[in-house]
Please model this.
Amino acid sequence: MENALGQPQTIVLLGGTSDIGLAIVRHLLNPTTLAVVLACRNVEAGERAAAGLRSDGVVVDVVAFDGAATGTHAEFARSLSDKHGDIDVAIIAFGILGDGSETKVDCDAAAELTNINFTGVVSSTIAVANQMRRQGHGSIVMLSSVAGERVRRANPVYGATKAGIDGFAQGFGDVIAADGVHMLIVRPGFVHSKMTTGLKAQPFATTPEKVAAATVKGLRSKRRIVWAPGILRFMFIVLRHLPGPVWRRLPLG
Amino acid sequence: MSNPSRARLWGWGHTKPTMAEEVSVDRAGVAGAVKEAGERGILARGLGRSYGDAAQNGGGLVLHLTSDASEVVLNPTTGFVTVGAGVSIDQLLRVIVPRGFFIPVTPGTRFVTIGGAIASDIHGKNHHVDGSIGNHIESITMVLADGSTTVIGPRHNPALFWATVGGMGLTGVMLDASIRLLPVETSRMRVDTSRLADLDDLMASMSQGDDDVRYSVAWIDLVAKGRHLGRSVLSRGDHATLDELDARQGVAPLAYGPRQLASVPPLVPAMGVLNHATVAAFNEFWFRKAPSHRVGEIQGIGAFFHPLDFVGAWNRLYGTRGMVQYQFVVPFGEEQAMRTVVERLSASGAASFLAVLKRFGAANPAPLSFPRAGWTLALDLPGGSRGLDDLLHGLDRVVLDAGGRHYFAKDAHMTHEAVRRGYPRLEEWKAIRDQVDAHRVWQSDLARRLGLI
Model:
């Protein structure tokens, strides 16, 4: 049960090894925190991430979670509540970037990426939200991306999944608001993290720490959407309306 | 029982709402409602004046006990009143004051229910001589988790009675209570007021004179800095006797009909209007308007006990981020801890509206009752203040290290550790609760957050 200062007691990270997700968890940790759940496909990597979060009085629980195995999501979310009580904040941070040049031609790779990044996110978000509706409170952080704001030719499948979950989160957020559950959509730009290692940085590149700081601020003030950095909101007002031939020629990756 | 309706419920601080099923019941309907308890349990809610989440039950059922003045049965010969748990102190006073009686303990607002008052074991300006409300209860009629109705009191089932006093509604739903009233000759108060330059002055002055007066409380300006740190206005008084009233007042010595002068409209800007500048200005004005020393002033009950009630919905002044109230007690001998807290609050630049300092008398036998012998300080802070979390958790450590504790009815942020250290008899309370509610029919957001269930 989160307190009046916006300090959560129980934090769940789906995508337990995500750099941005872990940075948000670190920013949310506070003296009242009782449990952090890192849900990840690779439990060993999750344990390594957990080591950095453990401190007095905080249980860090690493659990196996497969975003693509949608059939397991409802039971997974129920087990979280059974084990840790009310879930105060759930961060939906799992997903893969994929190889843009591969997913453009390989339909299997494209379907796999879509299944994790979109289908899995929708399914697990609904599963977690159902627990929060039962509680009558809770916050969900949806890690979207500016990649979904206007999908680029560099990685259209990835961009499309981000556009998809962003749209889903907008509509679904309005549904669960009536049940006391807050949906915060976070739209980072290019973030220096292990997901983007080796890629050429885009303009206004940021860090997981900065995204996390903006996210926690957005959670406390009950915002619907946070851009990181904030200037991207205004950039995309322009980019979204560029004529197709101009957009296509922009050197964006 | 009406049909439950989905509602977003807040505490008076307007900080952390949750959704619950809300239903109104009369006393006959409570037992039936208990059978509707789902996995998120049931909680009785009064007028929602506790600041945090004590009267919320997210995802569960929240009961409103209907009430009217017919549920106030006064026996003028014995001085006892039996009053429905959903009746407010406002409703009660309107019946008993004209008949020459006063409630033995009233908090700073009369808009709390009797049930809520007992569940929080409220205290007032007379705690140092009269104790808290639990000390004046003869019996409580209560519906238990199994749907049965029982009568408890200090002589009948004292363990459950004292677990219910200060038990935050987690032992059962009270239907009514029998309270020993205080006979009064008039509805007026005789009040002495004095201004004190700083905190040391104030604490010395209260330590010396408090035991001779029934009501005593000081208002401190926590925005003032430097040599003004802790400047305050000490107000003491008692019920005026008939011969203390002048001829005009003596015409209707027991007249009582408090009114609200105004109500804050729901159009306050989202950021609120109480910030450091406005609060500092108000505190300054209020300090200067107080007489440096005045004796024997005659005031009404409302002006003396319930000054905030003159403005309805005053919590709206804090805007959408709401406010956090902080109240703690430290034992006598730990004055240095109180000084540290006051200094930190002043140095933090937090916009603390007038804070209230008071001396508590001895604790009663209730394991979760807040008051204990010592100094208590209560203050309001805007919910969105920068650095508020670090400030409050830091103050918690000072209070706990001094052997003090915090008030559940106002809590908004405590850690489990703060509860364990502040309330060493928590396990004793839990054992009694487990006997009457093994399946956790009674739940609340506060109980979940602080690990009471």
Summary: Residues 276-289 of chain B form the longest helix (14 residues). The longest strand of chain B covers residues 188-196. Chain B has two domains: 69-184, 188-421.
